[in-house]
Amino acid sequence: MIQRFDHDDLRFLLAVAETGSTLAASKQLGVSQSTVSRRIAALEEALALELFDKRRTGYVMTEAAERLIEPARAVRAATDAFGHAVDGLSRDLSGTVRFTTNEPLAELFLPALIRRIKALHPDIRIEVDTTAQLRDLAKEEADVALRSLARAPDEAGLVGVRLGIDYWSLFCSRAYAEVHGTPTRPEDLRHHALIGLDASVRRRPVLDWADRYFPPEAVVVRQNSLPAAFTSIRAGIGIGLYSEFLAMMQPDMVRCFRPDLPPTLELWLLTHEHLRAVPRVRAVMDVAKAIVKEHAAAVDWTC
Q1: Mean pLDDT of the chain
Q2: Angstrom distance (rounded) from CA 141 to CA 149
Q3: Are the beta carbons of 148 and 226 closer than 8 angstroms?
Q4: Taking the model in full, what pTM does it have?
Q5: Could you read off the pLDDT of 220-249 as tens digits, one per residue?
C-alpha cells in the first residue's frame, strides 16, 4: 500500500522532470538544491518507487516517473484552478447586502452610502430594512446593521466598529437662523419657536431636559415621533433637539448649543463574524465608515 505522501512534493517532481536537474529545479522553485533532493527522496520513499535515475549529467525520469508525470501535471492544474477560484471569491464585489437601521438614520445616511456604493461597486445591491425591530444578524435576518445603542453590543458573534458618540443638541434650519438668529444658552429659548415631543417619545434624559427648559408658551408644535420632530426642525418651523450624527449629514442644519448632558447614544456599524470577510459586506462597511469619517471631519463631530 502506498504511504500517505505530501502532495506538495509533486511540485518538486515536476520541477526536476521539466528542468532535468535538482540545481535547475531549485532555482525555479526558489529553494536550496538540498531541499529539492530531500523532497524527491521523501516522495520516492512514500510511493516505494524510484522516480529518477541520478546521473552525473542530471536526473533522468524512470519508466515509473514517465507514467506518473501527466497525472502530476493534472494535480498541478487542478490546484492552480482551485487557487484561482478562491482568489476570485475573495475579490468578488457583487451580490446583495441587506442593510438594516432605523428610519431617521436610513433617511439621511443611506442615500450617501448607496450613491457611493453605486459609484465604486456597481455590482453590489443594497436592500434596506428600516423596521423599528432589531434584526438578528446571527439568524441572517440582515447582513449589516447601523444601530444607535446605549452601550457596546454584547450579542454573541457580532463584530463591528463604533462610528462615534452621538450627542443631541439644539438645532434649527439655516433659513430659521438667518431670520431669527440662534440661542446660545437655555435662557434664550423663550425668545424662539420650539419643537416639542409628547410623552410617548420621552425616554431619554435629553428629552427630560427639554421638559425643564422649553417654556410651554414657546412650543409651537409637539410631535409624537422623532422623525416628525426632525422634519419640523428641517422645515424651519422652529428649534428642537436633534441628533448630531444626523445633523452632520445635512449642510442646512445649524447647531445652536449642546445641553450639559452626557452622550445620548453610540453609533455602531455591525455584522456577524461569519460575514466580515465576505467581500461585498466588507466593501459596504468600509464605504460606510469612510462616509462617516468624512462628515465628522467637516463638522468636528466626536468619533
Answers
A1: 87
A2: 19
A3: no
A4: 0.63
A5: 999 888 888 889 999 999 999 988 888 888
**Could you give the count of Cα atoms lying within 13 Å of 160 in the half-sphere of its Cβ?**
28
Distance CA 115, CA 92 (A): 20
Alpha carbon 1 to chain centroid, angstroms: 51
Output the CA torsion sign for 159, 165, 176, 251: negative
Which CA distances in Å does 209 have to 36, 39, 77, 199, 262?
77, 76, 70, 13, 12
Are the beta carbons of 109 and 250 closer than 8 angstroms?
Answer: no
Taking residues 268-275, report their average pLDDT: 91
Domains, the chain = 9-91 (1.10.10.10), 95-166+265-299 (3.40.190.10), 168-257 (3.40.190.10)
Q: Give 81 or 218, the one with higher predicted confidence.
A: 218
Please give the order of strands across the beta sheet that includes 168-173: 240-243, 168-173, 253-257
**DSSP secondary structure letters along 152-206:** ----TTEEEEEEEEE-EEEEEEHHHHHHH----SGGGGGGS-EEEE-GGG--SHH
